[in-house]
Amino acid sequence: MRIGNLAGRLVVVSGDRALDVERASGGQFDSQPQAIFDRWAEFTEWAAGQDAASGDPFDPQQLEAPVPRPPQVFGIGLNYRDHAAEANLDIPSEPMVFTKFPTSVTGPHAEVALSSDRVDWEVELVVVIGRTGHRIPQEQAWDHVAGLTIGQDISDRRVQFREKPPQFSLGKSYPGYSPIGPIVVTADELPDRDRLAIGCRLGEESVQDGTTADLIFPVAEIIAKLSEVVTLLPGDIIFTGTPAGVGSTREPRRYLQPGEVLTSTIEGIGQMRTSFV
């Protein structure tokens, strides 16, 4: 199943058509996309009997953040070996966890204002939680996942590293610094949920090209580790880390500029385009 936020309304997507959930369900489910995660099991049972291809044609440019106001937003740092290597940092023995504040979330076609001259890109697989859990066993972790989407962990390195030790959350939480989308895809739609091609490009230049099979802590382990401490809630999102190719580790360093367009892709999910001013 593929769900989206079409101009503020929850839809099930099939190709170039979208089925409006509130209308198709006769009001059984709310039109608000965020509300569906609290009823995820009931919703997926209903949706299995629907033909999304019977929906209406839609304009992909009208897709907004599929999880518009997550209760909690987690990030995992240094979760690809090649990214740790390019940063000259040791491979972590435990997930390096930070938060991104929910007001930073925006959609897949956002225009984002740069906060300084040292703003970086980080394409990431984003996990959407569909079931409350605390101390979730790793072998049951995927049962708590509603689906997957694409994210960019936009990062102001000037804020992130202006003091020692560095702090992560504020520099990654300016308005628009957590674009996600274009849709949420359930894991059964993917050829291999743990091995997805991931990358991004600036204009026509490829700047990141990897696979989620290279995650140091894969999705199930991240969920198990987070939930050892935190109660995960329906609609939470987890940015799982970025592969090599960020701007701050390049020689010379390279940062986002006004007028540039960042295109982020993940196999089986699609792509999103973020422009900067």
UniProtKB/TrEMBL annotation:
Belongs to the FAH family. This is Fumarylacetoacetate hydrolase family protein. GO terms for molecular function: hydrolase activity. PANTHER family: FUMARYLACETOACETATE HYDROLASE DOMAIN-CONTAINING PROTEIN 2A (PTHR42796:SF4), FUMARYLACETOACETATE HYDROLASE DOMAIN-CONTAINING PROTEIN 2A-RELATED (PTHR42796). Residues 73-276 form the Fumarylacetoacetase-like C-terminal domain. Gene3D superfamilies: Fumarylacetoacetase-like, C-terminal domain (3.90.850.10). Keywords: Hydrolase, Metal-binding. It comes from the Bacteria.
